[in-house]
Amino acid sequence: MHIFTSIIFCAVYILCVNAYLDPVTPTTNHAFDLDLYEEVIDLEQCEEQLAYIMQNNTGLRNRFIDASFRPPRNVLKGNLRDLGSYFQCLDISQQTDDMVIGGKYSVVRIPLQQDNFQLPSLPSLPDLTWPDWNWPEFPRPEWNPNNTQEDDELTSKLDTYERAKYSAQSMLGDGIEPRAETAQNTTSTRMQMELAFCIPKVCTPRHALDVLTLNQTANLTMTEAFVRLPNDKQWVAADYVAVVLFSIIGFMTVLCTSYDVRHTILLKRDPKRANKICTMFSVYTNTKNFFVFTSNPSAITCLDGIRSFAMMWVIVGHTFVTQLTYIPENPLDLVEFMKSFWSLWITSATITVDTFFMISGLLVVYTTAAKVSRMSLLKKLHLFYLNRILRMFPVLGAVVLIQASFFHRLADGPYWSSMAMNTNNCRVYWWSTLLYIQNWVNPRNMCLSHTWYLAVDMQLHIASPIVLFWILGQRSRSAWAAMAAAFAASVAGATTYNVINGFQSGVVSLSTTANTDQYMIYYYVHTLNRISPFIIGMMVGYILHLYRGKAVRIPMVLVGLFWIVAFAASSAVMIATYFNIQPDWDNQVADNIINSTIRPVWAASVGWLVFACKHGYGGPVNWLLSLHIFKILGRLSYSMYIVHFPIIYLINATTLQPIYFAVNLSIYKFLIDFTLSLIGGFLLTVLIDFPFSSLIKMFIGGGPRPPPKVEPSAPEKPEYFTAVSVVESIRNDDSEKSRM
């Protein structure tokens, strides 16, 4: 019976393989006004405006030229991009007698493979010199992909960077199409310059270039990557909903805070006698409650530190990996850093998400086993699910709406297309995020792409009663049989699935045999491969439950051995990243072994850390992880996780030119990302999480709970999953609330 139920636990997810949908994205919800870009095009007027600019208005001509691209710097370090002057271009607007000349910012991609074509200078303007006019040319033929004497080493490095960038785009959810590796899709044909033109808004880049060069560039291959115009961010339903909803929340916050300050500070009355409804949205009360921590002898204090360090590891990893896609001026140096042994603390950061899965499984058992009986779980199963959903929804829903509206209007820049993509995804696929199914439905276009974790965690939480039913029984043998069978089935299912599909074993891979797109959507965000760390967490939680309030005596020799094994195992998991990220890595057998074992091995290592710290074998490690400061970070971990990625995207999208990559500068950037995420998480917690938790308690609780009955004999486990207890746990159970 145990094996049968455990197989069902895994088979549910195996059946979902290749079941992804591909909904059509409506242009009405697009972040930019696509119709505007088409409406302004007038090629006849384009020729008139270009003639006027080049012949009659030197100042206006220089503004267009100055806002356009220069030859990219650091081409030999992989930089093939120059983005001109974005804001200067869009600021151009001049009225003449019969027309209005406005600037349009257009970024074009020009492949370096041009059949020996060289971009000419302008023959019609031989007398003009910089700053009046000097057409920026391509890099001189010291390195030219068309040259038979091309630099093979540089070409190889650029190809490696292209694979790294593609891997990063796949991981970050940039909505890219699968990359076909064909004989025609060589390194030279894939490499292309990305250059910004500032042209009159009535022109297209192709037509403007043809006019300026007297059709001498007719054979030049070029594609328009994106175009920007002033006021091109259209208003959609999400904007109006966000304005109305957050205006109401803001009004309630000001009203409740004013009442609370008057009652507590000005009139100096007892805060307990204040109207609870009127203080629900009070910043004063919610901030004060945020820093209040109740002591609980059964609490696992080290979890706050583990969550905090895991969160910092997530943020620093995302800070570094987002630079692969569009920031660095020297991408080849970034690739060299990734290939080095000293980058392991970054390249192995993806394993930290399994820390959260382990903690989630641990808390499902540890917080439930002491309060819920087997029959109680079955009777109140809907409240078991409601408890989890109500914990997650307010903050998640708020950030989805903010991403779909306010973040898009908060700033601007030449990299804003990435931010617009995230906005568009949230306007179209918000429902799959709030239903926790986006890793199945639209894995290539996820709203808040990092929240795939929440989808998988919710799916595991929904399936967990299959094993919890046996854990909550009176016989520990049945509990262990159920967990062991579930773990064996999950590992066997994941191994079979991985061997059949032959996935790579690294998120960011530089190998020519890697297929990162398939890896991300069919392996990395797939629920099947995350079951084993969740089950290990349930095992650790059950052990902690069995020894709750009891002293555990373990010989120090055995304790030392466990620490050595845990450290060696976790180090081996991280070091594996150094090998599978190398460009010459090609070992499918090793990939299969790594994919099937690293997650349960990592979860088991963290599980020992939790157990040792809880029962007095953690020493200085437990002291560090149990510091009071980590209680604050632990309480903020969920909100920080939700908001940190949009903030990183927002900061990156405001960059005006490629930035030179250096490890120390990236660490400074991480400190900025972390600080802003900390502030954003705190605001979400105080302004959204606490108030809506109180609202849920008011509407579902239905009044105070009756006092528990006193039984002369040993009482049965209380009925924990009642409506009142669900909402109380939302507000009071800090450890489970912060588990993400």
Tell me what the structure shows:
The chain is mainly alpha-helical and 740 residues long. It folds into 3 domains: 151 residues, no CATH class; 52 residues, no CATH class; 434 residues, no CATH class. The protein contains 32 helices and 5 strands. Strands 1, 2, 3, 4 and 5 form a 5-stranded mixed beta sheet that branches. Strand 2 and strand 3 form a beta hairpin. Helix 23 packs antiparallel against helix 25. The two termini are 32 Å apart. InterPro entries: Acyl_transf_3_dom, Nose-resist-to-fluoxetine_N, O2_lipid_transport_reg.
Keywords:
about 750 residues, O2_lipid_transport_reg, membrane, signal, mainly alpha, transmembrane, about 60% helix, 3 domains, disordered C terminus, five-stranded mixed beta sheet, globular
Task: Report a brief summary of the structure.
With 740 residues, this protein is mainly alpha-helical.
